[in-house]
Amino acid sequence: MSTKKVMRVGFLTSGGDCQALNAAMRGVVKGLSNNCENLELYGFLNGYKGLIYGDFKLLTPQDFSGILTKGGTILGTSRVPFKEIRIPDENGVDKVEAMKQNYHKLNLDCIVILGGNGTQKTANLLREEGLNVIHLPKTIDNDIAGTEVTFGFQSAINIATEAIDCIHTTAASHNRVFIVEVMGHKVGWLTLNAGMASGADIILIPEIPYDTDKVIEAIKRRTKEGKGFTILAVAEGAISKKDAALSKKEYKKKQEEKKYPSVSYELADEITKKTGIEVRVTVPGHTQRGGSPCPYDRVLCTRLGAEAAKAIIEGDFGNMIGNVHRELVRVPLEKVAGQLKSVDPESQIIKDAKFVGISFGD
Ligand code: F6P
Cα–Cα–Cα angle for 21, 23, 29, nearest 5°? Predict the structure, then answer.
């Protein structure tokens, strides 16, 4: 593959960051620079804001060198909610029109957009508006439809697993009950995987509402079996059966009252009140998105980058580059934008976890 045409490619990273954003951009640029003679690279700063306000840097392939292992994003990121994208900013700027104008002003051939669900919706909107876009699926949450795995997910599993491993030893020494709160407001992929990888006894995820009494039963069962400690891996978005039965309005009101910093503290308090058992809570928080990408993500992103570069050279736009059965696939954005990939409570992995005695509190 070789081409003499000047290829003008823009990049932006949007939404919450994660590991391997840099690795993915590096993959794209290496794939392009290895196969195209004339490249012009533009990095839009701080997500869609850079594209809206024309805040960009002209970059060279060297700028993408040496960043395979670097966490965060060299372009910076921000959240520009999809639901606000059609609303003019405080100065009356039409964000969508501004993005189109900046794209055309630079005469771009394409823009590579790295981000999660919300980012993908805006990428799809830009496609509908006639821009050539390619989306690379990032998020530690792994909740993007059309791909089995997103980058950042595996790195975050490693960090959350290590956090629970560390809690394991101290919990065992002190015969304590510990909750480790894992990221994931809407889906439980990260909690499920980190929980299983670290031998958590109870795993609570948003897709399977829990009953506090069932959680207590599981703790007591362990005590009866002679185990002095219990580890709970609880997703940020875990929800009790009681709360799941509330109307949206009632639940929102409860959240706003902010009696507890998060669901883990509420659950810990409930367990203590009902049993007298002291429960400690640990929240690894944003450490799960930080640091260097793990080897799996580095390989994944190099491959995603290669496929994105091939698509750009072929002029095949409007897709997300996904990964299905370890093969890279180009998934039309209109087929997946706006869809959430959640854990199926009836899936084999949940059945296997239950079979080995892990409680989901249901
Ligand atoms: O979407 C990724 C994610 O890390 C979620 O797991 C988490 O709930 C959320 O972002 C945290 O967002 P913020 O960085 O805005 O606090």
Answer: 105
